[in-house]
Amino acid sequence: MVQGALLCLILVAGVAFIVVATAKFKLHPFLGLLLAAFGVGIAAGVPLPEVVKAVNDGFGGLMGYIGIVVVAGTIIGKILEKSGAALRMAEVVLRVVGEKRPQLGMSLIGALVSIPVFCDSAFVILSSLRKALAQRAHAPQASMSVALATGLYATHTLVPPTPGPIAAAGNIGASNYLGTVILFGLIVSVPTMLAGYFWATNVAVKIPVEEEQEPTASYEDILKDFGQMPSAFKAFIPILLPIVLIGAGSVVSFQQWSGEAAYVMLFLGTPVVALLLGVLAAFALLPKWNEETLTGWVGEGLKDAAVILLLTGAGGAFGAVIKATSVAEVIKGVAQGEAMQGALLLLVPFLIAAALKTAQGSSTAALVITSALVAPTLAQAGIVGAVPLALVVMAIGAGAMAVSHVNDSYFWVVTQFSGLKVADAYKAHTMATLLQGITAIITTMILWWLLV
Predict the structure, then answer these.
(1) pTM value?
(2) Rounded distance, CA 334 to CA 12, Å?
(3) Burial class (CB in 10 A: 0-12, 13-18, 19+), 107
(4) How many angstroms separate the CA atoms of 333 and 340, rounded?
(5) Which residue, 143, 193, 300, 337, has fewest beta-carbon neighbours within 10 Å?
(6) Domain map (residue ranges) of the chain
């Protein structure tokens, strides 16, 4: 079996293949990951039967951890989107924040809505509300767009049940610590969101948008046109219920409480159970219980989940092949050195994820691939347990933010729906995502210094 520097070169070539195949030749990341998995395994001298076994075990094993969780999360997000619950949550946040701070309101709305809803979809859903609020508060459209886009982005790569962070947690063996990952995701996302808000109010505010002079529907008209919306309680409960249950289960596990009540809480706090209960809570948002909603809306959620599941499974296969090589010995030598220790170790997954994100555009793909790559190295580097592994997920998520530009579908959603020119979008949106990624990794490293 290949060892040493040549093995490192093979791994780098495998990652380079994924980037070139997906970014330049537009090959779907699912196939790119699978081909890379086989290619790395064969080139590294892993016996052929073991390569096949690693691919199958890696794909199936990861699905066993997070498959239902991802499906349940996407169904919740789709129901929130279609029922108007996402808009209701936005309205509640605006009431709390007030119209005197419209950009802050947009940032908070984005950070909240993007926990269950993909940021691309969420930006489209909230765009009309953003325009109306900007007109009502006399706030520049570009500033409002960046505030919303960066608020959405902050939680998209950091807070489960968004699929990317869940996949990363599963890859590195942190599925049992999902409550801790959620907690740190929420903590790190606050300064990350505020970094985007700072950019929106200090840089994007100076960028003109042509559509600014065009009349738009009023805030009240948008809510009225949407029709009957659910109550605030019904809108929030599908998100809050799973988070509270997972968090409570994590506390019971950490405190090692025993007894019947603790046993029940551990069951309810299991991510699969908590997210399925969130789905049931989301059913209360359905305007009618019929084929359109129970089959149609749920079916749309399943379609959204399918791509994420395949990509996540392929990432698990890639990671399993890497583990089957002798990379652990190489990493052990690096980890025993003094160059990269403590919080500085977090820079490795951050830089890998940032390079992948910048090169191929998908934050989810960057999260999946990076977590698969670094998983075999963590135990050798002494990174074990709930808090250290959760902070590794945060470091990968931070890298998966930097940067959003022309090869990222989200960049084009923000550009087209905000009316920004491409050159202005680079200044307003791309640079904001760079600032967010840097803020997130600095916050993560500070937490490591304080807690680990």
Answers:
(1) 0.79
(2) 16
(3) buried
(4) 11
(5) 337
(6) 4-451
